[in-house]
TrEMBL record:
This is ATP-dependent helicase HrpB. One of its GO terms (molecular function) is hydrolase activity. Keywords: ATP-binding, Helicase, Hydrolase, Nucleotide-binding. Residues 13-145 form the ATP-dependent RNA helicase HrpB C-terminal domain. It holds the Pfam family HrpB_C. It comes from Salmonella enterica subsp. arizonae. InterPro entries: RNA_helicase_ATP-dep_HrpB_C. The keyword Membrane does not apply.
């Protein structure tokens, strides 16, 4: 559907969602995305969700929200450790749209923004790894982040944060 068609049919798709809107604040809080999705049939919604999902599942199993913005490519803000095991940049729309990855420290601070994860792993990651090993020594910072650290490392990491101080799991 093009812009002219949407404008010509505003009453059909937008008006039902405007019930109770009486101010500019109410208008700004209107969920236009939901109204537009109402125009699509089930197969089209399935395809839309498949091509442009709302979340991406990272190698650790976490589902991270994808940010879509009109003027910028889709982006994923994720802790760097959650991307260990991902060899290349995740893509959308059957591989046509690469995600911009905002790789974060364990404290959720930005470390690197990249559109080419494999180049980052092979290049600038080494410097980030050195700095993070010093700053976060209890975290795993593998030499080859394209390969997911094994479960033994994950168990040590989880144990460090779940046992009371002074206790060691054997």
């Amino acid at each position: 559907m093009d812009e002219a068609s949407l404008l010509a049919t505003l009453e059909r798709w937008l008006l039902p969602h405007m019930t109770g809107v009486q101010s500019l604040r109410g208008l700004k809080s209107l969920n236009v995305n939901q109204a537009l999705r109402g125009l699509l049939d089930y197969p089209m919604l399935q395809r839309l969700d498949s091509e442009l999902p709302g979340h991406y599942t990272v190698p650790t199993g976490s589902r991270i929200a994808i940010r879509y913005h009109e003027d910028n490519p889709p982006a994923l803000a994720v802790r760097m450790q959650e991307m260990f095991g991902e060899a290349s940049t995740p893509t959308l729309a059957q591989g046509r749209v690469p995600l911009v990855l905002e790789l974060l420290s364990p404290a959720q601070r930005p470390l690197q923004i990249t559109r080419d994860l494999s180049a980052f792993w092979l290049g600038a990651y080494r410097e980030v790894q050195k700095e993070m090993k010093g700053r976060y020594p209890k975290h795993v910072w593998p030499d080859d982040p394209r390969i997911r650290p094994n479960a033994a490392h994950e168990e040590v990491f989880v144990t460090c944060y779940t046992l009371p101080p002074g206790q060691i799991r054997r």
